[in-house]
Amino acid sequence: MFKNRLIALVLLLTGLLTGYFAMQVKETKFPYKFGLDIAGGTQLIYQADTNGVDASEISDSMSALRDVIEKRTNLFGVAEPLVQTETGSSDNGRKEHRLIVELPGVTDINQAIEMIGQTPLLEFKLAQEISPEVGLEVGEEQVDSPEPSFAFIETGISGRVIDKAQLQFDPTTSEPVVLLSFNNEGKELFAKVTKENVGQILAIFLDNQIISSPVIREEIKDGKAQISGGFTSQEAKTLVRDINYGALPLPIELISTQSIGASIGAETLNKGVKAALYGLLAVIIFLILWYRLPGLISSVSLIIYVSLVLSIFKLIPITLTSAGIAGFILSIGMAVDANILIFERLKEELKVGRDLNSALREGFARAWLSIRDSNISSIITAIILFWFGTSLVEGFALVFGLGVAVSMFTAITITRSFLLVIVFKTETTFKRSLFDAGLPRKQKNHKN
Amino acid sequence: MFIINHKKIFFIFSGLLVASSLLVIIIFGFNFGIDFRGGSILEVAYQNNNHLSVEELKTNLQKLNLGLFTVQTTSFDYENQGKKEGVILKTRDLTEEERRIIISTISQDGQFQIEERRYNSIGPVIGQELKERALWAILVVVLAIIFFIAFAFRKVTEVANLNSKVSSWKYGFCAIIALIHDILIPTGIFTFLGHYFINYQIDAVFIMAVLTILGFSVHDTIVVFDRVRENLSLAKKSNFDEIVGKSLRQTMARSINTSLTTLLVLLVLYFLGGESTKQFALILSLGIIFGTYSSIFLASPLLTLFHKKE
């Protein structure tokens, strides 16, 4: 008996502590973490063009791309940006590689896109003259001949293989010059390309615009190149900065944008909290009205459940979205299911003529199988929902699954410990009536 | 028991509901949300009463070559600033360039003060992919549930005396029929309501609700079946119909009460919760009502039908 009381006391105190912890919103080491739809912010989905990349190198390039963009968003002072890669499949069954960028607090889409999208794509391409058409060959008269047209062949040399860039000024012309140093891979590639194509034009493209078209004079082995494209010193400075911050290893295209203003997020949160509170209250009123004393006990367990789950949200931390809050509210309604199963069983056992104590133990023991099986099916659903993807559904599934698991503990262990303390040795009709459930029409016979 | 003895009435009732739901779905079709079909949605609040009229806005937008689009006027509740007028614009998916042009069209190049509350543009590829994934998710949940029930009830076959032998797979099968019933009817009602009364969309939130209904429906059915399992192992010679009827009677209060508490929170969520979860709360409530109905009036009577056929 004493042991039971001690356990109940410890559980109650733990409940109070977690409740206190969960209520602390301001000035805490563990703040609640909110998703974009509550905190406000922008989500951008980019499609990476992996055409020029070897299949085996795609995942490396993608993670390089992710790192570059992450660095970039950090530089702009975005708190906790989330940059992740994702693969999808297009209609023709080809794998598509995407980059998902989440920028909490950035509600200006222009600003967000500039942060990421304006990164230069630097490429070196070999120019190959397309032989002019027959009619153009008019001997020495070259006066009206059009500009020679070129086809550009990709060399694989791009911002991806550049280690760093430096700004210098040409000592004679005092023109700004950008000096590029390649990394090891770039060095080899650059040496190979320059060796094989002496005398040809190696054009430098920035964001698909040709900025410089120098002629290769000899093999360049030291992995250094310079661009003197006749740009202003300001342009050269920007280019150097951008390359050093990270030139994009792959070209990207924006395919999806989502932005939520901060005011709409605050509104969602307020409404969510309100709904959770009133939902909790409604369930508690129902439990006490219908199940009386056990209902009161399970209400206490339910409150402990809420504090426990909220504390877990803070500790892990779990990013809360509006869908997640909906999942949490739903779990409040479903968390009492185990208790309802147990109490209905308890009622039956009492009807059979057992005393309170044994009816209670029997009720818990017999309801367990149903509780286990039915909760497993909910957890299976949660796992598959999580796998279904999209951050919206993931948020819901995570909270819902967690709720089901935690509620099994609170509804069974905590409720049981409290009830065992309350059932004393002596049993009175009054006390029995406290355990009765439902409307006072228990004697009604069911038609069979 | 009444329900078991008159199961035909309930089968016909459920059958009619399912048939009309299917009919509604076939006739009206699904209205896919932009996350499935690709497209853009832009929500703008006017900061004061100074703004273009809807007609003017439509005429101006028409010049932008956006294809089909809809402009819907609305008002937003602001906690401290009261109500604000605004518009919701739906178009095909937009490039950043196009978005900027639209914004400056609405604000008349900054002449009117506006707040961009929400913007979402989804490329058709992503939408198609999400649609496929949603179908897979539903399929996988259904399969996982059949296997789980067959596994959880594997002992039923051994436990029952020869007289009441029902293979555990049949429990799974009955649960699945109830489950199809539980998603088709809410989807049908939802499509019907959506066609006439409310603005609705088949989107990721809808799929989320449907998958949750799947879980709940089985959850509910399992509790009844579990009781059947227990009663079978206790019973010596009573017939299967009676055992199922008895189990139903014993679990009915629980089924209704759990559904009630869940419905309570969902209704609160519907009326007090945010805009984005309203649709979720509505479909899920429907699913829970029919899920509870089917676990009592459909799944268990079906079980006795299976037994008869052997």
Amount of beta strand of chain A: 15-25%
CATH class of the largest domain in chain A: Mainly Alpha
Rounded radius of gyration of chain B (Å):
25 Å
Q: How far is it from the N-terminal to the C-terminal residue of chain A, by CA? A: 42 Å
Poorly predicted runs of chain B are none
Which structural class best describes the helix and strand composition of chain B?
alpha+beta
State the CATH superfamily name of the largest domain in chain A.
Multidrug efflux transporter AcrB transmembrane domain
At CATH level 3, the topology of the largest domain in chain B is Multidrug efflux transporter AcrB transmembrane fold
- Structural class call of chain A reads alpha+beta
Helix content of chain B: 55-70%
How much of the sequence lies in strands of chain B comes to: 5-15%
User: Which shape of chain A, going by the Cα principal axes?
Assistant: elongated
